[in-house]
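Quick one:
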Amino acid sequence: MKRTRDCGQVAGPNSRQCRPAMMTASNSTTSSTTKAAAAASTPPPLYLAEGLVAVHKPLTWSSQDVVAYVRGILIQDAKDRGIKEPAGRRKKPLMKVGHGGTLDPLASGVLVLGVGKGTSMLQSYLEGDKQYTAACQLGYETDTLDAEGKLVKEAPWVHVENIAAVEAIIPKFTGKIEQVPPLYSAIRVDGKRLYEIARGGDASKAEEVEIPKREVEIFGLQVGSGLEADVIRSGVVDGPVYREKAQALEAAAAAAAADAAAALEMVGVPEDGNAKVEEGSEGEGGKSKKKRGRRNNKKKRESNFKKCLFDEITVPAIESDDTNSNDKLELPQFALSVQCGGGTYIRSLVRDIGYELDTVATMTGLVRTKQGPFVLEDALRKEDWTADTIYEAIRKSQERQIGV
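Output:
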């Protein structure tokens, strides 16, 4: 009997010709199961949105504090959604977050953040135009050119009779001008940042450093005797009160340090608190030298950063209400509204205005009111920083064609 080649014909149960049809049905079922399993095992996206968002930087926070805080919120959200951090990742954060232009700790206002792919869009915000409102005071100058620094100069100011006298010199500071950045800034000189030199402990070296002039552009400059309500709500340091409280705290800290040093001397312990280790001795476990080296390196790193004396709750700030209208400034205090290009230091601008008035001046408070297309009302306040609000703000920016 001839073997049939037609599966449509009757054949025995072991007929090879019928197996392909049976296997096709089985493969189809297996394929569907595999796809369903693959879909179920597909990890959720790391970012729910990528782009730009404006947040409000509180007083006393550094810009990097804000970046770290927001990154932490987004990382925790990602983990809650099932994202697992790759094993062995130590130095590189799980998620990318950066900012588009530093604000000093004693400044508040608009800080543009990039999330994910948005970090590659931040350069234009570093270089782009910005708007600020500064509170200024004639008569004294500090080493940092703001209320936080040590007093280095004092000069009479009473010959500046009114705000009109300040307004008269403003045209000299509009357009393209040359400016010397503050010693306490992130500008690099001979491979080191200026604030590293300034806080390095060698006062003579800091005084000798030559800071190159830079060309900046001032698009608009206005002098006033009052601060807008939204600027005050953002947070403006009350310069005179800040200096008074800061000096009291620093004096108390110096007295406590002197008492502690005296107590250590009485019991024969060096001021650094470390017992003497004989040369060549490694101590317990042979690790004392390494640990001491790490501690010294940490101290050097920390010495480059000056901790604020106050937090966002205790920092003295200008307030305005129906009974006490502190938003009105009188000489030697005045307000300065600035629209400028990237790289402009408002502290240096205030210093130079003081020199032009034949006195000295210090910036006591600063609010960034605009950065690129973002204004104060766009900026998410700290109490609203959640993963949902941050991602929603990014989507709204994209709808406005910002960062797309």
